[in-house]
Design goal:
This protein has helices spanning about 25, 55-60, 130, 135-150, 170-185, 195-205, 220-225, 240-245, 280, 300-310, 325-330, 335; strands spanning about 5-15, 30-35, 45-55, 80-90, 100, 110-115, 120, 160-165, 185-190, 210, 230-235, 250-255, 285-290, 320, 340-345. α9 (about 280) links the parallel β12 (about 250-255) and β13 (about 285-290). The protein contains 12 helices and 15 strands. The protein is an alpha/beta fold. The protein has 2 domains: about 5-130 and about 315-345, Quinone Oxidoreductase, Chain A, domain 1 (Alpha-Beta Complex), CATH 3.90.180.10; about 135-290, Rossmann fold, CATH 3.40.50. The strands form 3 sheets. Strands 3, 4, 5, 6, 7, 14 and 15 form a 7-stranded mixed sheet that branches. This is NAD(P)-binding protein. One of its GO terms (molecular function) is oxidoreductase activity, acting on the CH-CH group of donors, NAD or NADP as acceptor.
Length: about 350
Protein backbone atom coordinates (compact mmCIF):
# COMPACT_ATOMS: atom_id res chain seq x y z
CA UNK A 1 0.00 0.00 0.00
CA UNK A 2 1.30 3.47 -0.91
CA UNK A 3 2.22 5.86 1.88
CA UNK A 4 -0.76 7.60 3.45
CA UNK A 5 -0.93 10.73 5.60
CA UNK A 6 -1.15 10.13 9.31
CA UNK A 7 -4.12 12.51 9.62
CA UNK A 8 -7.01 13.74 7.49
CA UNK A 9 -9.46 16.63 7.46
CA UNK A 10 -13.09 15.95 8.23
CA UNK A 11 -16.06 18.32 8.40
CA UNK A 12 -18.51 17.38 11.13
CA UNK A 13 -22.18 18.20 11.48
CA UNK A 14 -21.93 20.14 14.75
CA UNK A 15 -25.34 21.66 15.51
CA UNK A 16 -28.86 21.50 14.10
CA UNK A 17 -29.76 24.75 12.35
CA UNK A 18 -33.09 26.45 12.87
CA UNK A 19 -35.22 27.86 10.09
CA UNK A 20 -33.44 29.81 7.41
CA UNK A 21 -30.13 29.37 5.65
CA UNK A 22 -27.69 27.47 7.90
CA UNK A 23 -24.82 29.43 9.44
CA UNK A 24 -21.72 27.51 8.26
CA UNK A 25 -19.65 28.42 11.32
CA UNK A 26 -22.30 27.23 13.78
CA UNK A 27 -23.60 24.23 11.85
CA UNK A 28 -20.27 22.61 10.91
CA UNK A 29 -16.85 22.03 12.44
CA UNK A 30 -13.64 21.20 10.56
CA UNK A 31 -11.33 18.83 12.45
CA UNK A 32 -8.09 16.94 11.83
CA UNK A 33 -8.14 13.33 12.97
CA UNK A 34 -5.88 10.29 12.64
CA UNK A 35 -6.46 8.27 9.49
CA UNK A 36 -7.13 4.61 10.17
CA UNK A 37 -5.29 2.69 7.47
CA UNK A 38 -5.48 -0.83 8.90
CA UNK A 39 -8.51 -2.36 7.22
CA UNK A 40 -10.72 -5.21 8.38
CA UNK A 41 -11.80 -7.91 5.99
CA UNK A 42 -14.41 -6.58 3.55
CA UNK A 43 -13.40 -2.91 3.95
CA UNK A 44 -12.18 -0.52 1.26
CA UNK A 45 -10.16 2.68 1.80
CA UNK A 46 -11.13 5.44 -0.64
CA UNK A 47 -9.46 8.78 -1.36
CA UNK A 48 -12.33 11.19 -1.99
CA UNK A 49 -11.87 13.51 -4.96
CA UNK A 50 -15.28 15.20 -5.30
CA UNK A 51 -18.07 15.87 -2.80
CA UNK A 52 -21.61 16.22 -4.12
CA UNK A 53 -23.60 19.14 -2.65
CA UNK A 54 -27.36 18.63 -2.96
CA UNK A 55 -30.49 20.37 -1.63
CA UNK A 56 -31.65 17.16 0.05
CA UNK A 57 -28.74 17.52 2.50
CA UNK A 58 -30.68 20.29 4.24
CA UNK A 59 -33.40 17.82 5.18
CA UNK A 60 -30.88 15.44 6.72
CA UNK A 61 -29.99 18.07 9.32
CA UNK A 62 -33.48 18.10 10.85
CA UNK A 63 -35.23 15.05 12.38
CA UNK A 64 -38.19 13.93 10.30
CA UNK A 65 -39.96 10.68 11.28
CA UNK A 66 -41.25 10.31 7.73
CA UNK A 67 -37.87 10.74 6.01
CA UNK A 68 -36.43 8.06 3.72
CA UNK A 69 -33.10 8.28 5.58
CA UNK A 70 -32.15 8.71 9.27
CA UNK A 71 -31.26 12.29 10.25
CA UNK A 72 -27.69 13.33 10.94
CA UNK A 73 -26.58 13.39 14.55
CA UNK A 74 -24.30 16.15 15.88
CA UNK A 75 -20.70 14.94 15.83
CA UNK A 76 -21.10 12.81 12.70
CA UNK A 77 -19.10 13.43 9.54
CA UNK A 78 -21.38 15.43 7.25
CA UNK A 79 -23.07 12.99 4.90
CA UNK A 80 -22.83 13.29 1.11
CA UNK A 81 -22.23 11.30 -2.05
CA UNK A 82 -18.63 11.24 -3.19
CA UNK A 83 -16.47 10.07 -6.07
CA UNK A 84 -12.93 8.90 -5.45
CA UNK A 85 -10.16 6.38 -5.97
CA UNK A 86 -9.55 3.12 -4.10
CA UNK A 87 -6.27 3.31 -2.16
CA UNK A 88 -6.37 -0.06 -0.41
CA UNK A 89 -8.86 -2.91 -0.34
CA UNK A 90 -9.59 -6.01 1.69
CA UNK A 91 -12.53 -6.89 -0.54
CA UNK A 92 -11.83 -8.90 -3.71
CA UNK A 93 -14.35 -6.83 -5.70
CA UNK A 94 -12.14 -3.72 -5.50
CA UNK A 95 -8.48 -3.02 -6.22
CA UNK A 96 -6.22 0.01 -5.72
CA UNK A 97 -6.77 2.48 -8.54
CA UNK A 98 -10.45 1.68 -9.08
CA UNK A 99 -12.63 4.75 -9.52
CA UNK A 100 -15.71 4.57 -7.30
CA UNK A 101 -18.75 6.37 -5.96
CA UNK A 102 -19.89 6.04 -2.36
CA UNK A 103 -21.53 7.83 0.53
CA UNK A 104 -18.10 8.96 1.74
CA UNK A 105 -19.06 12.21 3.41
CA UNK A 106 -17.14 15.43 3.97
CA UNK A 107 -13.71 13.94 4.58
CA UNK A 108 -10.52 13.39 2.62
CA UNK A 109 -10.62 9.61 3.01
CA UNK A 110 -13.40 7.17 3.85
CA UNK A 111 -13.59 3.48 4.75
CA UNK A 112 -16.56 1.71 3.20
CA UNK A 113 -18.07 -1.73 2.84
CA UNK A 114 -18.46 -3.07 -0.71
CA UNK A 115 -22.26 -2.90 -0.55
CA UNK A 116 -22.14 0.90 -0.50
CA UNK A 117 -19.64 1.34 -3.35
CA UNK A 118 -20.23 1.58 -7.11
CA UNK A 119 -17.41 1.31 -9.64
CA UNK A 120 -16.99 3.97 -12.31
CA UNK A 121 -16.06 2.86 -15.82
CA UNK A 122 -13.27 5.17 -16.98
CA UNK A 123 -12.81 3.24 -20.21
CA UNK A 124 -15.84 5.09 -21.64
CA UNK A 125 -14.22 8.50 -21.58
CA UNK A 126 -16.04 9.18 -18.33
CA UNK A 127 -14.39 11.39 -15.70
CA UNK A 128 -14.85 11.34 -11.96
CA UNK A 129 -16.52 14.72 -12.35
CA UNK A 130 -19.07 13.11 -14.69
CA UNK A 131 -19.63 10.23 -12.29
CA UNK A 132 -20.66 12.41 -9.36
CA UNK A 133 -22.73 14.84 -11.42
CA UNK A 134 -24.64 13.86 -14.53
CA UNK A 135 -24.01 10.14 -13.94
CA UNK A 136 -24.67 10.47 -10.21
CA UNK A 137 -27.80 11.38 -8.29
CA UNK A 138 -28.30 14.51 -10.41
CA UNK A 139 -28.72 12.76 -13.73
CA UNK A 140 -30.40 9.73 -12.21
CA UNK A 141 -33.05 11.94 -10.60
CA UNK A 142 -33.78 13.59 -13.94
CA UNK A 143 -34.06 10.18 -15.63
CA UNK A 144 -36.37 8.86 -12.92
CA UNK A 145 -38.64 11.90 -12.99
CA UNK A 146 -38.97 11.93 -16.77
CA UNK A 147 -39.11 8.23 -17.62
CA UNK A 148 -40.72 6.69 -14.53
CA UNK A 149 -42.95 9.44 -13.15
CA UNK A 150 -43.72 11.61 -16.16
CA UNK A 151 -45.73 11.02 -19.33
CA UNK A 152 -42.77 9.63 -21.28
CA UNK A 153 -43.25 6.30 -19.47
CA UNK A 154 -46.61 5.75 -21.17
CA UNK A 155 -45.67 7.36 -24.47
CA UNK A 156 -48.06 10.27 -23.88
CA UNK A 157 -45.28 12.88 -24.10
CA UNK A 158 -44.83 13.68 -27.78
CA UNK A 159 -42.41 15.86 -29.75
CA UNK A 160 -43.76 19.37 -29.49
CA UNK A 161 -45.49 18.79 -26.13
CA UNK A 162 -45.19 21.83 -23.88
CA UNK A 163 -42.97 21.15 -20.85
CA UNK A 164 -42.06 23.61 -18.09
CA UNK A 165 -38.97 23.00 -15.93
CA UNK A 166 -38.38 25.10 -12.81
CA UNK A 167 -34.88 25.33 -11.38
CA UNK A 168 -33.79 24.76 -14.98
CA UNK A 169 -30.27 26.12 -14.45
CA UNK A 170 -29.69 23.92 -11.41
CA UNK A 171 -28.20 20.45 -11.14
CA UNK A 172 -31.16 18.19 -11.88
CA UNK A 173 -33.25 20.81 -13.65
CA UNK A 174 -30.61 21.47 -16.29
CA UNK A 175 -30.26 17.77 -17.11
CA UNK A 176 -34.04 17.37 -17.26
CA UNK A 177 -34.35 20.39 -19.56
CA UNK A 178 -31.71 18.96 -21.93
CA UNK A 179 -33.44 15.59 -22.09
CA UNK A 180 -36.89 17.08 -22.67
CA UNK A 181 -35.56 19.31 -25.47
CA UNK A 182 -32.69 17.47 -27.13
CA UNK A 183 -33.82 13.86 -26.69
CA UNK A 184 -37.63 14.00 -26.62
CA UNK A 185 -38.09 17.05 -28.85
CA UNK A 186 -40.52 18.86 -26.56
CA UNK A 187 -41.24 22.57 -26.51
CA UNK A 188 -39.41 23.45 -23.29
CA UNK A 189 -39.90 26.52 -21.13
CA UNK A 190 -37.13 26.81 -18.55
CA UNK A 191 -37.50 28.89 -15.39
CA UNK A 192 -34.46 30.26 -13.53
CA UNK A 193 -33.45 33.16 -11.31
CA UNK A 194 -31.61 35.90 -13.17
CA UNK A 195 -31.10 37.04 -16.73
CA UNK A 196 -27.64 35.44 -17.03
CA UNK A 197 -29.05 31.99 -16.29
CA UNK A 198 -31.97 32.55 -18.64
CA UNK A 199 -29.59 33.60 -21.40
CA UNK A 200 -27.55 30.43 -20.82
CA UNK A 201 -30.67 28.25 -20.99
CA UNK A 202 -31.79 29.86 -24.24
CA UNK A 203 -28.47 30.21 -26.06
CA UNK A 204 -26.39 27.30 -24.74
CA UNK A 205 -28.90 24.65 -23.72
CA UNK A 206 -31.22 25.53 -26.58
CA UNK A 207 -34.53 25.83 -24.76
CA UNK A 208 -37.42 27.43 -26.61
CA UNK A 209 -38.03 30.01 -23.89
CA UNK A 210 -36.33 30.89 -20.58
CA UNK A 211 -38.18 32.99 -18.01
CA UNK A 212 -36.76 34.85 -15.02
CA UNK A 213 -38.94 34.18 -11.98
CA UNK A 214 -37.52 37.32 -10.35
CA UNK A 215 -39.11 39.49 -13.02
CA UNK A 216 -42.08 41.66 -11.99
CA UNK A 217 -44.00 40.36 -15.00
CA UNK A 218 -43.13 36.69 -14.53
CA UNK A 219 -46.70 35.40 -13.92
CA UNK A 220 -48.00 37.21 -16.97
CA UNK A 221 -45.04 36.12 -19.08
CA UNK A 222 -45.51 32.48 -18.11
CA UNK A 223 -49.19 32.50 -19.01
CA UNK A 224 -48.53 34.18 -22.37
CA UNK A 225 -45.66 31.83 -23.20
CA UNK A 226 -47.57 28.67 -22.33
CA UNK A 227 -50.49 29.79 -24.49
CA UNK A 228 -53.99 28.36 -24.76
CA UNK A 229 -52.76 24.80 -25.20
CA UNK A 230 -51.52 24.68 -21.62
CA UNK A 231 -48.68 22.79 -19.93
CA UNK A 232 -48.49 19.09 -20.77
CA UNK A 233 -45.83 18.34 -18.16
CA UNK A 234 -44.30 20.37 -15.35
CA UNK A 235 -41.00 19.24 -13.78
CA UNK A 236 -41.21 20.93 -10.39
CA UNK A 237 -38.24 21.89 -8.24
CA UNK A 238 -40.28 23.78 -5.67
CA UNK A 239 -41.63 27.22 -4.83
CA UNK A 240 -44.69 29.26 -5.68
CA UNK A 241 -44.16 28.51 -9.38
CA UNK A 242 -46.21 25.36 -8.78
CA UNK A 243 -49.32 27.45 -8.14
CA UNK A 244 -48.79 29.40 -11.36
CA UNK A 245 -48.34 26.21 -13.36
CA UNK A 246 -51.49 24.71 -11.84
CA UNK A 247 -53.39 27.64 -13.37
CA UNK A 248 -52.03 26.82 -16.82
CA UNK A 249 -52.35 23.04 -17.13
CA UNK A 250 -53.44 21.23 -20.26
CA UNK A 251 -55.97 18.43 -19.91
CA UNK A 252 -54.36 15.21 -18.59
CA UNK A 253 -51.18 17.08 -17.64
CA UNK A 254 -48.57 15.53 -15.35
CA UNK A 255 -46.68 17.33 -12.59
CA UNK A 256 -43.42 15.66 -11.61
CA UNK A 257 -42.54 16.67 -8.04
CA UNK A 258 -38.75 16.50 -7.94
CA UNK A 259 -37.97 18.74 -4.95
CA UNK A 260 -38.77 21.89 -3.03
CA UNK A 261 -35.50 23.77 -2.69
CA UNK A 262 -37.20 27.08 -1.81
CA UNK A 263 -38.87 25.46 1.23
CA UNK A 264 -35.99 23.36 2.55
CA UNK A 265 -34.89 26.07 4.98
CA UNK A 266 -38.39 26.78 6.34
CA UNK A 267 -39.37 23.76 8.38
CA UNK A 268 -42.87 24.01 9.80
CA UNK A 269 -43.82 27.06 7.73
CA UNK A 270 -44.15 25.63 4.22
CA UNK A 271 -47.66 25.65 2.77
CA UNK A 272 -49.21 23.62 0.00
CA UNK A 273 -50.63 25.04 -3.23
CA UNK A 274 -53.88 26.87 -2.61
CA UNK A 275 -55.25 26.01 -6.02
CA UNK A 276 -54.68 22.25 -6.04
CA UNK A 277 -58.29 21.74 -7.18
CA UNK A 278 -57.05 22.75 -10.64
CA UNK A 279 -55.84 19.14 -10.83
CA UNK A 280 -59.48 18.04 -10.88
CA UNK A 281 -60.50 20.50 -13.58
CA UNK A 282 -57.58 19.48 -15.79
CA UNK A 283 -57.88 15.78 -14.90
CA UNK A 284 -54.17 16.04 -14.14
CA UNK A 285 -51.76 14.04 -11.98
CA UNK A 286 -49.19 15.24 -9.46
CA UNK A 287 -46.63 12.63 -8.41
CA UNK A 288 -43.64 12.85 -6.08
CA UNK A 289 -40.69 10.46 -5.93
CA UNK A 290 -37.40 9.70 -4.15
CA UNK A 291 -34.81 8.41 -6.59
CA UNK A 292 -33.13 5.92 -4.23
CA UNK A 293 -36.16 3.64 -4.55
CA UNK A 294 -35.31 3.12 -8.22
CA UNK A 295 -31.73 1.95 -7.55
CA UNK A 296 -32.32 -1.15 -9.68
CA UNK A 297 -32.64 1.16 -12.71
CA UNK A 298 -29.40 3.07 -12.10
CA UNK A 299 -27.10 0.94 -14.31
CA UNK A 300 -29.51 1.22 -17.25
CA UNK A 301 -29.90 4.97 -16.82
CA UNK A 302 -26.15 5.53 -16.51
CA UNK A 303 -25.53 3.63 -19.74
CA UNK A 304 -28.10 5.76 -21.52
CA UNK A 305 -26.67 9.01 -20.15
CA UNK A 306 -23.17 7.97 -21.26
CA UNK A 307 -24.51 7.41 -24.77
CA UNK A 308 -26.19 10.83 -24.79
CA UNK A 309 -22.99 12.43 -23.50
CA UNK A 310 -21.11 10.95 -26.45
CA UNK A 311 -23.78 12.22 -28.85
CA UNK A 312 -23.81 15.70 -27.32
CA UNK A 313 -27.46 15.46 -26.32
CA UNK A 314 -26.62 16.13 -22.67
CA UNK A 315 -23.69 17.92 -21.05
CA UNK A 316 -22.09 17.81 -17.63
CA UNK A 317 -22.49 21.38 -16.38
CA UNK A 318 -20.82 21.95 -13.00
CA UNK A 319 -19.82 24.61 -10.48
CA UNK A 320 -16.71 23.45 -8.60
CA UNK A 321 -15.53 24.88 -5.27
CA UNK A 322 -11.95 24.10 -4.23
CA UNK A 323 -11.03 22.68 -0.82
CA UNK A 324 -12.91 20.54 1.69
CA UNK A 325 -12.70 23.34 4.28
CA UNK A 326 -14.91 25.43 1.97
CA UNK A 327 -17.71 22.85 1.80
CA UNK A 328 -19.81 24.47 4.58
CA UNK A 329 -19.98 27.89 2.89
CA UNK A 330 -20.31 26.31 -0.57
CA UNK A 331 -23.47 24.47 0.47
CA UNK A 332 -25.28 27.78 0.88
CA UNK A 333 -24.76 28.57 -2.81
CA UNK A 334 -27.70 26.23 -3.38
CA UNK A 335 -30.03 28.61 -1.52
CA UNK A 336 -28.59 31.84 -2.93
CA UNK A 337 -28.54 30.72 -6.56
CA UNK A 338 -24.76 30.92 -6.76
CA UNK A 339 -24.34 27.78 -8.87
CA UNK A 340 -25.15 26.80 -12.43
CA UNK A 341 -25.58 23.08 -12.97
CA UNK A 342 -24.19 20.64 -10.43
CA UNK A 343 -22.50 22.06 -7.32
CA UNK A 344 -19.51 20.10 -5.99
CA UNK A 345 -16.36 20.45 -3.93
CA UNK A 346 -12.98 19.28 -5.24
CA UNK A 347 -11.06 17.71 -2.37
CA UNK A 348 -8.03 16.60 -4.40
CA UNK A 349 -6.97 16.79 -8.07
CA UNK A 350 -8.72 14.33 -10.34
CA UNK A 351 -6.39 11.55 -11.61
CA UNK A 352 -6.02 11.10 -15.34
CA UNK A 353 -8.12 8.44 -17.06
CA UNK A 354 -6.41 5.57 -18.80
CA UNK A 355 -7.69 3.02 -21.29
CA UNK A 356 -8.42 -0.45 -20.05
CA UNK A 357 -9.07 0.69 -16.52
CA UNK A 358 -11.18 -1.38 -14.20
CA UNK A 359 -14.73 -0.67 -13.18
CA UNK A 360 -18.14 -0.51 -14.72
CA UNK A 361 -21.08 1.81 -14.31
Amino acid sequence: MSALPANQKQVLFAKRPGNGVPDPQKTFQTVVRPLRNELKDGEVLIKNIYLSLDPTMRGWMTPDPNSYIPPLQPGQVMRCWTSGVVVHSKDPQFAPGDWVQSNGGWQEYSIEKAKGITKTDRGEGVTLKDSIAILGVTGLTAMCGIFEIGKAKTGELKPGSTVVVSGAAGATGSVAAMIYKRVLGCRVIGIAGGEDKCSWLKNSVGLDVALNYKSATFAKDLKATVGKGGIDEYFDNGGTILELCLENLARNAHIVLCGGISNYNDFGTATGPRNYLRLIVAQAKMHGFVVVYWAHKFPEWRRQLIQWLKEGKVENVVTVVQGIENAPSALNLLWTGGNTGKLMVEVAPEPEASSGAKGKL
